[in-house]
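As noted in the main text, all predictions were made from sequence alone. Below is one such record, for Lipid/polyisoprenoid-binding YceI-like domain-containing protein.
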Amino acid sequence: MKNVLLIVMVLFFSAFTNAQNSFQNKTVKILPQSKLNITGDTNIKAFECVFDMSYLKKETQLQFIADDPSHIRFKNALLSLNTKGFDCGSRPINNDFHKLIQSDKYPHILLELLEIRLQEKGSANAVVNITIAGTRREHTFPVKFSEGDVSRIDGILLLDIRDFDLEAPKKLFGMIVVKDEIKINFNLVVQK
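Prediction:
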């Protein structure tokens, strides 16, 4: 009888542990009304490089597990931004931007979602790995979201280009200098 009880307990706990440790799959579709851009500043004026969302893969498979109701971990949740998709408004600024991020050698900027820590309703902290010009760094930043069949995820990710071993271009013999801080602004509209 003790052996039967022991076997039942082992099976119960192993089933519970396996259920807690298995990742769930969900397909999400990034809708065309989504927006993403990179903004920065020089000592003269600001610039904005807008990403053409048609360069994104429309559907992606997410794997996630909820450690508890306020903490979700992800596996293989990767957003790959083809650098050809960025338009900075003029050919010289486009050339400078592509030279800065070394797009000839590294044609993609990668954003990999690692986890979300839910805060109050509609806000969370996202932890992502960002890869620019072959250098990967982990960042945590706040996001706002609304849930439903169609969800919105908004955020601004502040980056220092020196963290990615990038050197800001200088123009006119150093009179125009790009500042080291850039922002990745996004408003993603996704359908589950």
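The first strand starts at residue 24 and ends at 30. DSSP finds two helices and 13 strands in the chain. These features were considered when defining construct boundaries for the mutagenesis experiments described in Section 2.9.
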